[in-house]
Amino acid sequence: MKLRTKYILFVLILHLLTLVLAWFIFIDNKIYFIIAEAFVLISAVVAIQLYRQLVLPLKMLLQGIEAIKDKDFNVKFLSTGKLEVDALIDVYNQMMDELRTERTRQEQQHFFLEKLIHTSPTGIIILDFDDRVQQANPKALQVLGIDEKAVIGELIGELAHPIFRHIKALKSGETEVVKLDGVNSFKLQKSHFIDRGFSRHFIMLEDLTAEILAAEKKVYGKVIRMMAHEVNNTIGPVNSIMQSAMKTDQLWAGHDFDPIKDALQVAMDRNQNLNLFMRNFADLVKLPQANKQPVVLQKLIGSVVKLMSIRAEEKGVLLALNLPEEPVKIMADEQQLEQAFINIVKNAIEAIDDQGSVTFTIISKEKKLVITDTGKGISPEQQANLFTPFFSTKKDGQGIGLTLVREIMLNHGFEFSLKTVAERQTEFVVYWG
């Protein structure tokens, strides 16, 4: 029962009881009856005034409570002229001012935080209480190459992109640098915050590819230049001495010295091979900027197929073409791009043990070239190091073929990838748009 109802019932019962008692007084003494009636009237007036002074202000405050429930902090009350009630109203009005100011401050901070997350150069992924993706800023979506609708509301451990498996394995406060495809490197940092008393996680995703590639190139460039300097300084004088000796006929008079002469020739040939070996490394460091000119992609692919056809025939590998009839023109350095494709096709042919195919496919609408081979594929362990300098899966490999491919692609600003997508289906994909 409401306080107002209780008060009205109490006043009515009290005054009715007083009237009944006054009736009995009326029988014996009319003067006392008149006095009693006057008392009842005065009491009724006082009760009405008390109702106005106490119950009505409380009713107004109840309206204020309803406004608070509705989060409407603009409702305020005027003073009534009653000391106690005005003190309560002042406290209420002050509280409403504080709530309104705090809500404005929270909204401004929330807007600023949302703007900061949205425009941050670092990828940010925010999870809900169940580790489902609640929000991913544009940078995170761009770095991962995924659509927002594909991740929002999904469990972090059930998403297809391999980086989410690393995020799932991370503990709060841990940091990890992940290299997924041998080219792109990401720094993952997982942390948490408290929301309504419970912990929620967020992940900061930073693309370190450019920095790591620059650091790698600086290091291996210095090593290669030092090696080339020492090898050339040694090979040059040694070859000169051996050539002089080979040209001195007096030293080789008679057949007894033929084995020595042959050994010197082998040593000279080996020196030349070593010199060529170092030149390959030096070419990697001295790769010039791409001289981009209009290139017909079908023509370029045709040249690569002609160059690699003999090697392909030797291993029984079919070089297949799936190209549009209409010429596809791209801006590229023809010599550099041709060298990159030759390296890719060479690796594809070598990956096929017995019989197979290497297929060139141009998808004009997507501005994409796909070179597919039916070789043995790339293992997850090899995938992470594919384009790393000096890394090779071959017994006598130098580890510069794919590194040169990487440098040429980066030199052109092309996006690319090399991975096994299914059994006996490995794809090298280039986006030139």
From TrEMBL:
GO CC terms, sorted: membrane
Top-level lineage group: Bacteria
Reactions this protein catalyses: ATP + protein L-histidine = ADP + protein N-phospho-L-histidine
Pfam families: HAMP, HATPase_c, PAS_8
Spans traversing the lipid bilayer: 7-25, 31-51
A GO molecular-function annotation: protein histidine kinase activity
CDD domains with a match to the protein in the record: PAS
Ranges where the HAMP domain occurs: 52-104
The EC number(s) this enzyme carries: 2.7.13.3
GO annotation, biological process: phosphorelay signal transduction system
Entry keywords, A to Z: ATP-binding, Kinase, Membrane, Nucleotide-binding, Phosphoprotein, Transferase, Transmembrane, Transmembrane helix, Two-component regulatory system
SUPFAM superfamilies membership: ATPase domain of HSP90 chaperone/DNA topoisomerase II/histidine kinase, PYP-like sensor domain (PAS domain)
Protein's cellular compartments: Membrane
Enzyme class: transferase
Residues annotated as domain Histidine kinase: 226-433
Domain PAS, chain residue ranges per copy: 109-162
Alphabetical list of PANTHER family matching this protein: PEROXIDE STRESS-ACTIVATED HISTIDINE KINASE MAK3, SENSOR HISTIDINE KINASE
Name of the protein in question: histidine kinase
